[in-house]
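Write out the 3D structure for:
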Amino acid sequence: MAFALLRHVVTRSAGVLILALMGAAVVFFAMRAAPGDPALTALGEGASTETIAAFRARWNLDEPLLVQFGLWVANALRGDFGQSLSIASGTAVYSLFADRLPNTLFIGVYAIILAVLISLIAGTVAALNRGKIIDTVATSIAAAGISMPDFWIGYVLIYAFALGLGWFPAYGFISPVESLGGALLSGFLPALAIAAPMAASFTRILRSALIDNAHRDHVRVARSLGHGPSFIFLHHVLRNALIPFVTVIGLQVRYLLGGTVVIERIFGINGVGSLMIDAAFGRDYPIIQACALTFLLIVLLVNIVVDLICTMLNPRMR
């Protein structure tokens, strides 16, 4: 059993490496195909031809595209993502990442935890009260939550809980490296803005899965054997319902990262998302490529973890 699980992990990891390389190639060539010149953006329209040529030579921008891609991949495998071209010229991308990644990871994990807690409670309560008013209210709120974009929810939360009630700061974020309590307080509204649409989706999935599993044959057998409702729910209904629930969590990570980029801008969070936006405006290739590759690796790794959890919940999926 352990060998089969290890083989499954190795197979999935090999697939991740191939997908990461393909994703890196897409990001690299898409950036080169985009309009604009990083040399002119960094030096200004009035720069001389000699200065522009020196800039291109310094950053290997005068090399053929395949050579540039090969150099970038080779350096990235050593953990060297180059240096910023424009927004922090000459600064190592690794250094910029090290400063901002903790903030982005904290907000992302915070949002996932909030979304899972909200949906576990709402989905379970709705399923156990199927057809009643509380079920109608929960499913209606979930339907509305799915249709609302996270940036709009962010502005509503700022207006209600920051400007109106004054419970949370409207702008700015205290890094968890400085103060965990400050990060939990200042990061609550941005995390909730990202979590709300995800929680709505998770609630609908969990409710449907719980109702579906409650009417399966093995549950009827468990009832006929005299098992109590709590035992049946925990061991035969909730356990099987968690498989699609966990799968959806993994799929939502990509939207979480996309939402983080926007939410960081709205709430003034100094994270990787806001760094990526600044780099896009400055045509800063090394930063954009490093951000995109990091987000891609996070999505792929999370999907491996989700796959392993589902395999452990149901060994027949192995």
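The chain has a mean pLDDT of 81.
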